Amino acid sequence: MSVHLLRTYVAFHRFIALAWMIGLAFFAFFIAVLYRSLAESGIEELWESYPEALRAAVGLDPEAPLAVGGRFAIESWLAMEFLGWMPLLIALYGVVYGAGTIAREAEQGTLDLILSQPVARYRFVVSKSLVFLVSTAALVVTAGVALQAGVAAAGESLNTIYLYLTLFQGALVGLAVAGYAIAFSGAFLSVGRAAAVAGL
User: Membrane-spanning regions, if any (predicted)?
Assistant: First the structure.
């Protein structure tokens, strides 16, 4: 790993990562706050309107989705509306980042310049991968803090350990997809082809 390369890639990637963090934080906060307005009446109708396959995809039991008292539990709501989609969102981030890791450098003509320097090729890839790892960790922490703030604003409470474990699982899916995307980026040297294959 090259510290100079790592610093350079963090500087180049900071605005994209910040945009993803703000968007994901807004989405998480909005979903958590929305629970309060739907908790008493609207969630049951919303749940019934979903196809059974979608209900199964987010990991809720179709036979017993309601908590004691006929209300949806906040955990069920967050699993249905946010946490179930988190692996997909992080995987999408992984495809977008990973596909451009090497291929974008090749398309812009900077890959030859980088590889002509006395830097080992693995350091180039490791530096780019570490930037993705750090930005993914920042996404997970931001989403967790936004969810906690939204849950507190809705007047509910949530188990912080389970929340971050669930977010961490989503991040692992994103890291796996990003690994494939980085590999395809190096193999094809085309952002479009790498994103298409990794997105499958």
Answer: 12-35, 82-103, 130-155, 161-183
What is this structure's pTM? 0.78
Say if 102 falls within a structural domain.
yes
Q: Which of 31, 151, 36, 134 is nearest to 86 (CA)?
A: 31
What span, in angstroms and rounded, lies between the C-alpha atoms of 152 and 146?
10
Cβ-based neighbours of 90, under 8 Å, separated by 6 or more: 136, 139, 140, 170, 171, 173, 174, 177
Residue 59: pLDDT band with limits 50, 70, 90: low
Does residue 112 register a pLDDT over 90?
no
From the CB of residue 12, how many other CB atoms can be counted at a distance below 10 Å? 11
d(CA 101, CA 58): 31
| Angstrom distance (rounded) from CA 69 to CA 120 | 62
**Domain-located, residue 20:** yes
Q: C-alpha angle 111/178/106, rounded to 5°?
A: 15
Structural domain boundaries enclosing 26 = 3-39+73-199
Burial classification of residue 119, based on how many CB atoms lie within 10 Å of its CB (0-12 exposed, 13-18 middle, 19 or more buried): middle
Number of domains making up the chain: 1
Is 163 part of any domain?
yes
Q: CA-to-CA distance for 2 and 130, rounded, in angstroms? A: 11
Give the integer Cα–Cα distance in Å for 77 and 84: 10
The pLDDT value recorded for residue 99 is 86
Does residue 45 form part of some domain?
no
